[in-house]
Amino acid sequence: MSSRAGAMAGWRTVARWMLVLLLAAAGASHLSWGRRGYRIVVPDWSTRLTGLSKDAIVVGSGVAELALAGAVATMPRERSVGWLVAAFFVAVFPGNVHQWRTGRSAPMLRTDRARFVRLLLQPVLVVWAVWSTR
Length: 134
Hints:
The structure is a single chain. The protein has about 130 residues and is mainly α. The protein has six helices and no strands.
């Protein structure tokens, strides 16, 4: 392995562990201190479509985030795990759009600017998930 390839592998490892920490923190917040605040991010149509309450969707997303964090941590080079994380980030994007369009505050997203920047970060998260698990 060349030194450049070794350096890239090192960066991927750091990025992968940062992804684990992000998913674990997000999952924990969805299940605890942020749970109530995240309910407003859930669009009304999603409750009609799934038959679940907004709270159940928030809890489910928190459980999914924790499971994905565990999968990334324990199966670090399994490409399918990265694609699952990327798919999750795509799946929650409509909630982020809903929050931005309605201008409603949620934990750490109290301004229109913060909500808009969050939208721009979503594609970065998708790429990050796939790249760091290669």
